[in-house]
């Protein structure tokens, strides 16, 4: 099937549309979940501008910013994970594991600790502080990890090991910052590090939306090169792919997306790892489709947030739920890979 001269996998297209419909439905559940008696028809009517004053307050001021934040953060992490996993040809090479998320967290926590415990994007003098610091931290970490893992090419195993080391180092520095901080700053940074959507607002959501609108089309231009890259560097070069330019674009897109998500909601773990792998399996493709990975990331985050605040006896940060789900999946994948290597 071809759309605008580009070949589109019909199965991937159908699965993407189905997942998008599920995302919309779960997002509506997220809007109506809570102490009020709001129903889905009430939420739809309010979103179309026909709700009462009380319903508009509940939907637009209390519920929708959090749901929208979950959607855009999950989408950004899903696409970032799909880019790094495909680029490195390894499902373990995600922003969480190769140090990008920790770099963003390091920059953001430094701003939080040294600014009096204020972390909401757009709050006072920090209108650019947290997202800018997170982006710089992620970019610098990615450059260091990439440079150290280069040895006549980027080996995914070396990239992961160096990334794990960078993550451990940065997390140690983050803990040192928190240990030396005042009580208010330490409490704020600790809550933010858990990956929470409780303090998210429209001023936190808008920058992530802008980043998605700018970066996603750029990432989509690399789809052909990502597909060819699965065959190896020599084949990519032989088919006319500007390899170094392609790598820089892919890494930059993944880093900016991950940094935007982290600056808005903190390091929500395992979304960049789990969402692309689920997307790849349900689509039946050799690599994670970018848009489907983004929608799957949005679905996982908004679903986890719904569980965290509506189905548990007391609300917990969404990052705790994603870690509970993602960690066993990581263990299963590692075990499966080990078994495969043993059989060989």
Automatic annotation (TrEMBL):
Pfam families: FecCD. The keyword Membrane applies. It is a multi-pass membrane protein. The keyword Endoplasmic reticulum does not apply. Keywords: Cell membrane, Membrane, Transmembrane, Transmembrane helix, Transport. SUPFAM superfamilies: ABC transporter involved in vitamin B12 uptake, BtuC. One of its GO terms (cellular component) is plasma membrane. The chain crosses the membrane at residues 12-31, 43-60, 67-85, 97-121, 128-150, 156-178, 199-220, 248-278, 290-312, 318-335. GO terms for biological process: siderophore-iron import into cell. GO terms for molecular function: transmembrane transporter activity. Belongs to the binding-protein-dependent transport system permease family. FecCD subfamily. It comes from Naasia lichenicola. It is found in: Cell membrane. This is Iron ABC transporter permease.
């Amino acid at each position: 099937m071809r759309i605008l001269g580009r070949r589109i996998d019909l199965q991937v297209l159908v699965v993407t549309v189905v997942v998008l419909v599920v995302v919309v439905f779960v997002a509506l559940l997220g809007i109506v979940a809570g102490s009020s008696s709001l129903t889905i028809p009430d939420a739809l009517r309010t979103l179309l501008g026909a709700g009462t004053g009380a319903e508009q307050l509940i939907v637009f001021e209390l519920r929708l910013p959090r749901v929208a934040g979950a959607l855009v953060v999950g989408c950004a992490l899903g696409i970032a994970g799909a880019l790094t996993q495909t680029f490195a040809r390894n499902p373990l090479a995600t922003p969480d594991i190769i140090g990008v998320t920790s770099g963003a967290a390091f920059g953001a926590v430094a701003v939080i600790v040294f600014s009096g415990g204020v972390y909401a994007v757009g709050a006072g003098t920090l209108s650019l502080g947290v997202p800018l610091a997170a982006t710089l931290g992620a970019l610098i970490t990615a450059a260091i990890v990439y440079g150290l893992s280069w040895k006549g090419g980027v080996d995914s195993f070396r990239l992961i090991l160096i990334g794990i080391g960078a993550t451990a180092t940065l997390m140690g520095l983050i803990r040192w910052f928190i240990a030396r901080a005042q009580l208010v700053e330490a409490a704020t940074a600790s809550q933010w590090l858990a990956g929470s959507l409780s303090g998210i607002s429209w001023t936190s959501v808008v920058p992530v939306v802008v980043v998605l609108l700018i970066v996603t089309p750029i990432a989509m231009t690399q789809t052909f090169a990502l597909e060819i890259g699965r065959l190896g560097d020599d084949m990519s070069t032989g088919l006319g792919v500007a390899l170094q330019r392609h790598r820089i674009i892919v890494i930059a897109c993944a880093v900016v997306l991950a940094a935007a998500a982290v600056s808005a909601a903190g390091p929500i773990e395992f979304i960049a790892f789990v969402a692309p792998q689920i997307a790849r399996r349900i689509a039946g493709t050799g690599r994670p489709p970018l848009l489907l990975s983004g929608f799957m990331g949005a679905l996982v985050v908004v679903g986890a947030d719904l569980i965290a605040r509506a189905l548990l006896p007391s609300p917990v940060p969404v990052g705790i739920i994603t870690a509970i789900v993602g960690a066993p999946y990581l263990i299963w994948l590692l075990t499966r890979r080990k078994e495969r290597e043993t059989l060989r």
